[in-house]
Amino acid sequence: MQLGQQTEVGDPVPGIGVATFGAGALVEGAVAAGGAAAAAALVPILQNNYAEAGIVPEDDERLAMETTTYDVNGTAMSGYLARMKGGAKRPAVIVVHENRGLNPYIEDVARRLAVAGFVALAPDGLTSLGGYPGTDDEGRVLQRKLDREKLIRDFQAGAAHLAGLPSCSGK
Fold this sequence. Notes:
Blueprint: H1 24-46, H2 50-53, E1 63-72, E2 75-84, E3 92-94, H3 104-115, E4 119-123, H4 136-144, H5 148-163
Parallel strand pairs: 3-4
Antiparallel strand pairs: 1-2, 2-4
């Protein structure tokens, strides 16, 4: 995907690429290949175990990590910001969460990107509903209550916030 390329979720943000992924395609393939029993067998394998799945620890001493807030039309939006320690300016990336909210997996993705040399911001699209509720199932319920266009604007505002940070190189 090219930076700034339009995606299925709305207009591009200059300099920010958006990619989506998930396990849904695996389940759909299992249904096609082996029916509901095959799909049901995959569900426990695909469920997240955040304690075992983290790749970059929350206490990684190379990183500066924080919960940050930014303004979206007069409302505070929350996000998880991760970057390498030190004063070097780095390129930025927005980490767009799935339909569960800013869960521990998405925070780990932000840390992985920080280790790779990016300033990573993972906005919590559920901020207006109280934030990530602590479980993916509850997060899915909340996500369904969100207005899609508002969610897009919230993430676009996150990109603008990120681009204005002193640690961001503007790329």
